[in-house]
Design brief:
The protein is of the alpha/beta class. It folds into two domains: 28 residues, no CATH class; 250 residues, NAD(P)-binding Rossmann-like Domain (Rossmann fold, 3-Layer(aba) Sandwich), CATH 3.40.50. The protein is built from eleven helices and nine strands. Bound molecules: 1,4-dihydronicotinamide adenine dinucleotide. The site of 1,4-dihydronicotinamide adenine dinucleotide (NAI) has 27 residues, from helix 2, strand 7 and helix 9.
Length: 291
């Protein structure tokens, strides 16, 4: 660590900084932190981008995905790149999650500081069933995989006291939880439940252990899950035009998640945070008037 509280800034010259800030600049925002990252399937996955940034910022972590995704995806390659152990776990199975937290603590040498829940899947969307003709078995699977899995992850951690004080849990959501986006189908209901779980568990884990739980409501993003949604390309372009800053990319979403895992956002919990280039605050955009 530098002894002297100055950094050389190429534009403004020398800047005075406290020692702690200097240490963080040199060592990384997540230096010394241990995490579990769910949901990296391929290079487009938001979780993949988060893993690369977390590594860059000094974290150590395990990677996990459903056993079937481990067979078809390229997560092992990411594991090698990040020096991370890959542990299979179906996020709907309590036994898998219990084992995942146990193994992660053994591999990482202690309790966990951050968890990314980046999981979503709807059989109704996959099979192109409209919202007015849902298959209810599929509907329960959508809810189980995309929402209840967050509760299962948190309960597994809570029951074995696997998270450190001030640990941060982030789950990815979408604005269809608040407003109607017809093509998003039953995933909208799952996201509403996901955000509610973040608030409800955020209370219980906050008073138990100061653990914070938030959801990030991300712009449409070109990934495997995103492109499964009906009319995704049209919608992606619409959101791009509607948002003053344009759509947020997977990389910028990863940057945001890193700040939420860091100690700079310690008092933030039980929130749904829009990371969408301003889309959620727009009513009308001149970009569409007269078209
Ligand atoms: P992705 O398809 O790369 O990631 C989804 C992941 O969920 C995959 O890795 C998949 O294997 C995993 N998964 C599915 N079932 C599972 C199970 N039973 N157990 C464990 N893992 C399971 O797509 P993306 O876009 O990176 O999705 C990540 C999150 O971001 C999801 O929650 C998605 O709803 C959310 N999101 C995505 C947006 C987009 O436009 N792509 C926009 C807003 C939110």
């Amino acid at each position: 660590m530098l002894k002297c509280p100055v950094l050389l800034n190429s534009k403004t010259g020398f800047v005075l900084l406290p020692h702690t800030t200097i240490a963080i600049y040199i060592m990384g925002l997540l230096q010394g932190k241990k995490g579990i990252i769910f949901g990296a399937l391929n290079e487009q996955s938001i979780a993949w981008r988060v893993a690369l940034k977390a590594k860059e910022q000094g974290a150590t972590f395990t990677l996990t995905n459903a056993p079937v995704a481990l067979r078809f995806g390229s997560i092992q390659q990411l594991g090698e790149q990040c020096d991370a152990t890959v542990i299979p776990a179906d996020a709907t199975k309590e036994a898998d999650l219990k084992a995942l937290f146990e193994q992660s603590q053994t591999v990482l040498g202690g309790k966990i500081d951050f968890v990314l829940h980046s999981i979503g899947m709807s059989p109704n969307v996959r099979k192109k069933r409209p919202y007015t003709k849902l298959n209810y078995k599929f509907y329960s699977q959508t809810i189980d995989v995309s929402a209840m899995s967050l509760h299962k992850v948190l309960q597994a951690a809570y029951q074995q006291d696997a998270l450190n004080e001030w640990a941060s849990v982030v789950a990815l959501s979408y604005i269809a939880a608040q407003r109607t986006f017809p093509g998003y189908n039953d995933m909208a209901d799952a996201k509403a439940m996901l955000e509610s779980i973040a608030r409800s568990f955020g209370y219980h884990y906050g008073i138990k252990n100061k653990v914070r739980i938030n959801t990030v409501s991300q712009s449409p993003t070109l990934t495997t899950a995103g492109s499964g949604i009906k009319g995704f390309d049209d919608f992606f372009n619409y959101a791009e035009k509607m948002s003053p800053l344009g759509n947020a990319s997977a990389d910028s979403c990863a940057d945001f998640c890193i700040t939420l895992f860091s100690d700079f956002t310690r008092m933030l919990t039980m929130q749904n945070l829009y990371h969408d280039g301003g889309f959620s605050s727009m009513g009308m955009s001149p970009a569409f008037v007269g078209q």
